[in-house]
């Protein structure tokens, strides 16, 4: 294809080729799905837009049209996924100037968010209402996520051999591909491979629950059936309503776990390792509001201590 024809190529065709060349095999499938979804939106919003027609105004119009039906953060993600391809097009000389420069990110009014985490009393109330039968069920799944702070996909991938009851440890070394039902997958990142200490009550309970289960099969579900995140969230919603506490998601149990540890005085470094965060920076950003609240308490404690000095 000549340079002239590349200049007049439709943007969505160029973008699809760019995804294929630069992203296939380099990113996780879940991230690839987001790029492909962005590509579909480009086809829908600007099907006839050519690369040579990408100016600051035409690009801003594209963002504005996308923002009509999406919240600001989602529009920001859309912008970032397009920007890499557009900057490469500028480097190749297909576009004279960077049309993404000074782009304004808009978005519709965010929906009212669910609570991100429960306080200690609310979590105790939820756990007290679980139906913890003698056989494995989804209530046990909820209990274990609340006790460990695991990601949804990590908890789905647990097999009996991941439990080390002698040392009260649980190994996190894989995830379950619940979106495509293609079996076990690697963890989110290298830092996600970790061992989580379990309390003795959980150890005793699960040692009985899983003693007769296949060593290498997921313990919570039959792998021949697809598992949906929404199904578990709906189940948890009903439990929260029954318990008369704020409604949270399964991922909210992870936030609850981390929040309670931080409020209990556990260090950020320990919480980061337990959650499988790549760095403490991630933990600090995610739980900044809690850390600030704890710092305010520390200031009060320091002032009280100093005031008692003669």
From TrEMBL:
Q: Which GO terms describe its molecular function?
A: DNA binding
Q: Does the keyword Transferase apply?
A: no
Residue ranges constituting the Tyr recombinase domain according to the UniProt record: 113-301
Supply the alphabetized keyword list. Answer: DNA recombination, DNA-binding
Source organism, top-level taxon: Bacteria
- Known SUPFAM superfamilies for this protein? DNA breaking-rejoining enzymes (SSF56349)
InterPro entries, from UniProt? DNA_brk_join_enz (IPR011010), Integrase-like_cat_sf (IPR013762), Integrase_catalytic (IPR002104), Integrase_recombinase_N (IPR010998), Tyrosine_recombinase_XerCD (IPR050090)
An example GO BP is:
DNA integration
Gene3D superfamilies hit by this protein = 1.10.150.130, Intergrase catalytic core (1.10.443.10)
Signal peptide interval: none
A matching Pfam family: Phage_integrase
PANTHER family tied to this protein = PHAGE INTEGRASE-RELATED, PROPHAGE INTEGRASE INTD-RELATED
Instruction: Name the family.
Output: Belongs to the 'phage' integrase family.
Protein name per Swiss-Prot or TrEMBL: Site-specific integrase
Per the UniProt record, the lineage of the source organism begins with: Bacteria, Bacillati, Bacillota, Bacilli, Lactobacillales
């Amino acid at each position: 294809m000549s340079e002239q024809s590349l200049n007049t190529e439709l943007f969505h065709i160029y973008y699809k080729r760019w995804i294929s060349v630069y992203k296939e095999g380099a990113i996780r499938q879940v991230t690839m799905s987001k790029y492909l979804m962005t590509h579909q939106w480009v086809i829908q919003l600007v099907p006839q837009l050519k690369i040579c027609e990408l100016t600051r105004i035409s690009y801003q119009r594209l963002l504005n049209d996308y923002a009509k039906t999406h919240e600001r953060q989602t529009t920001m993600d859309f912008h970032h996924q397009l920007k890499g391809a557009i900057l490469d097009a500028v480097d190749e000389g297909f576009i004279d100037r960077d049309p993404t420069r000074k782009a304004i990110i808009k978005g519709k009014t965010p929906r009212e968010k669910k609570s991100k985490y429960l306080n200690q009393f609310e979590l105790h109330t939820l756990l007290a209402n679980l139906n913890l039968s003698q056989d494995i069920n989804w209530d046990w799944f909820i209990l274990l996520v609340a006790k460990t702070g695991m990601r949804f996909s990590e908890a789905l991938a647990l097999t009996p051999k991941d439990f080390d009851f002698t040392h009260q440890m649980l190994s996190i070394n894989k995830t379950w591909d619940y979106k495509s039902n293609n079996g076990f997958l690697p963890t989110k990142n290298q830092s996600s491979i970790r061992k989580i200490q379990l309390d003795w009550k959980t150890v005793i309970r699960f040692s009985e629950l899983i003693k007769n289960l296949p060593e290498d099969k997921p313990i919570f579900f039959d792998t021949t059936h697809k598992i949906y995140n929404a199904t578990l969230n709906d189940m948890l919603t009903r439990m929260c309503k029954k318990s008369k506490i704020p409604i949270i998601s399964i991922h909210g149990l992870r936030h609850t776990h981390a929040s309670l540890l931080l409020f209990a005085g556990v260090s950020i470094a320990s919480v980061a390792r337990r959650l499988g965060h790549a760095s403490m920076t991630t933990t600090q950003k995610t739980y900044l509001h809690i850390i600030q609240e704890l710092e305010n308490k520390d200031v009060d404690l320091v002032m009280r201590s100093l005031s008692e000095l003669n």
